[in-house]
Each structure stands twice: as C-alpha cells, then as structure tokens.
Write a structure and sequence with these properties.
Elements (H helix, E strand, L loop, with lengths): L3 H12 L6 H13 L3 H6 L9 H10 L4 H5 L1 E4 L2 E4 L12 H11 L6 E5 L5 H9 L4 E6 L2 H13 L6 E5 L10 E6 L12 H4 L15 H6 L3 H4 E10 L5 H10 L2 E7 L5 E8 L1
Parallel strand pairs: 3-4, 3-6, 4-5, 6-7
Antiparallel strand pairs: 1-2, 7-9, 8-9
Helix pairs in contact: 1-2, 2-4, 6-7
Length: about 270
C-alpha cells in the first residue's frame, strides 16, 4: 500500500516535465481518483490509500491531456463547470472580466446579460451566480458547447435564468443587454502553443487569423446596437492587443478602458458608450 503523500510527491516530480502546475495537477488527479474534493485530501492525506486508477491518470497527464478533460470539470469564479474534449477550458485569467463587471455595476445588478462565444457557459453562468436576479443568453457556434452549457445551467439550478443558442457571434440577435461578455479567439494563426492547448483544445476557439483580430472585427461593429444605455461590453484580449482592439472599439463609437489580470497583463477591454 503506497503512502498518498509519497505518491503525490513522486507524481509532481514526474509532471514537472510537462506542467507548470505539477503539484496542483497531482493533487487534483489524486482527489479525482479517490472521489473526494481536493480540500479533503489535503486536510488529511494519511486517511487515504492510493487508488489503482491514479497511475493511469498521471500517464494521461504526462501525454499533455489537460487536467480539466481528465477529471471532467473546471472550477471558475464561484461555480463548477462540466467541460470535455472539444470545448475551451475556462481559465482564471477570464475571471478578470467578471471582476470588471462587478466594479462597473457596483451595488446595482445587470438585468440582461449576453455571453458571445459562451463555450460551456463560462462567463454567463459566473455572472448569473454573481447576480441572482439577472437573466442571460449565451451564444456559441458549436452544438456540443451549447448542450454542455445547458447541462451546466441545470446542474447549477440556473436553467430558468440562462438560455443558450447556436449562433454566429451576434448575427441575428436583437434586443439590448446591460452586460455583454465575450472571450473570442485571439491567437494569431502562426503562434506556437503548449501541447496541452494545441493538441487538445478546439482550434476554432483559439485562432483568429494572421493577427489574431479577425473575430474582434466581426464582433465589435455589432455591439452598439446590442448594448443598453448605461451598460458595458467587456472583451477578453491577448496581452499585446490593447492598442489594436481599442482602435476597433473607438471606431465603433465606444470609450475604452483596460483592466489587467492578476499577473499584470492587459486582459480585458471595457467598452461603454462614448
């Protein structure tokens, strides 16, 4: 019978060759194999025996399969989201958009929320968790993503407040929204990515033309008609895209501010009516 603490140390050492978060990965995979939360594992690892399934999970991670796909979920903001192959994995950097929205509305609440490119419902469901009186619509081009988002809404008991639809960004949408959230593809076609991302996550959710701006060029001109007075549109950007995307937004008539993520990188553009 192998000691759990020893197994975690050994796994973390092995995973250091493929992951910048080797210890965390090992803990999440061990907890998953045990069928417990990570916090319970860390509180008293000595009460557990290493399950036989753990070795296989580590081997999958050694082949660069994302932890979120292996365990089937990712925690984001205050919620847990089901994720699986073919969907963009929620990332902590994207929580910057929710933080910016909270600052904008202060003690108020948006009534209608739109999430363009919702994936598994990431930004919309996080926003609805923050504002219990709000309702929202999530759009994604993939039927698989929309089905997953609907499952997540149901699991979170938000299915009465969240609707999801297959669509092509804002094409065909009408009405106005107090909060528009969007994490579009923004990676240039020739940019190299880590194997975890390049070999597993959907290219259509990552790449956006030679300069990474193709989808911004389609999305931003649609926003003025969709944004309600006093509302805000918040777009995730790559760390070097502040100036270029701001130019597109200003041309569309918006005032633009930028918010940085916890690492100090430009991460979200805040668009309000000029």
């Amino acid at each position: 019978m192998t000691d759990v603490a020893f197994a975690l140390r050994d796994a973390a050492q092995r995973l250091a060759a493929v992951s910048d978060t080797a210890r965390l990965d090992a803990e999440l995979l061990m907890a998953h194999a045990l069928g417990v939360e990570r916090q319970a594992l860390l509180l008293d690892p000595a009460r557990f025996d290493v399950p036989a399934a753990f070795a296989g999970l580590i081997e999958r991670r050694m082949k660069h399969e994302p932890v979120a796909y292996i365990v089937g979920y990712r925690d984001f903001w205050t919620i847990r989201l089901i994720v699986g192959p073919g969907m963009l994995i929620p990332r902590p950097d994207s929580e910057t958009l929710i933080e910016a929205a909270i600052d904008h509305f202060d003690t108020d609440s948006p009534d209608r929320i739109l999430d363009l490119g919702t994936g598994p419902g990431t930004l919309l469901l996080a926003a609805l968790a923050q504002w219990p009186a709000a309702h929202g619509l999530g759009i994604d081009e993939l039927e698989k993503a929309v089905a997953c988002a609907e499952d997540n809404a149901s699991d979170l008991e938000m299915d009465e407040r969240a609707r999801f639809r297959v669509g092509d960004w804002a094409t065909g949408l009408d009405g106005q929204f107090d909060l528009i959230l969007c994490n579009p593809p923004y990676i240039a076609d020739d940019e190299a990515l880590m194997p975890d991302v390049a070999d597993h996550e959907p290219p259509g959710a990552l790449f956006a033309g030679p300069d990474g701006l193709d989808d911004y060029r389609r999305i931003i001109p649609e926003l003025p008609r969709l944004l309600a007075p006093g509302g805000i549109a918040i777009l995730e950007i790559g760390a070097t895209q502040h100036i270029s995307v701001s130019g597109l937004a200003e041309t569309a008539g918006f005032s633009v501010a930028c918010r940085q993520d916890l690492a100090g990188r430009d991460r979200a553009l805040l668009l309000t009516r000029a």
